[in-house]
Amino acid sequence: MHLICHLLFKENKRSLYRTAALLLACLFSHFGGLHAQPANVSIQVTGPGNEKIAGASISINEQRKKTDDNGFLQVSLDQGRYTIQISAVNYFSFNFSVNVNADTLLLAELKPRESFLGNVTVTSSRNVSSNQMSIQSLNMEQMRKLPVVLGEIDPLKTITLLPGIKNGGEAGSGLYVRGGGPDQNLVLLDGIPVYNPNHLFGFFSIFNGEAIDKIEVIKGGMPANFGGRLSSVINVSSRNGNKDSLKGSGGIGLISSRFSLEGPIIKGKSSFMLSARRTYIDQVARVVAKSEIGNNGYFFYDVNARADYSINDNNQLLFTFYKGDDDFKFADTDNGRNTNFNTLWGNTLAGLFWKQKISNRLQQQTGLIYNKFALNNQSTFSALSFAFASGLEDLQVKTDWQFSSNKWLKLQGGLQYIKHRFSPGAGDVTAGAQQYISDIKNQYAHEAAGYVTTDVKVTPALEMTAGIRYSYFNQVGPTSRIIYGADGEPTGQTESFKRGESIAAYHYPEPRISFLYKLPAQASIKASYTRTTQFLHLATTSGATFPSDLWVPSGEKI
Question: Is the pLDDT at 21 greater than 50, yes or no?
Answer without folding.
Answer: no
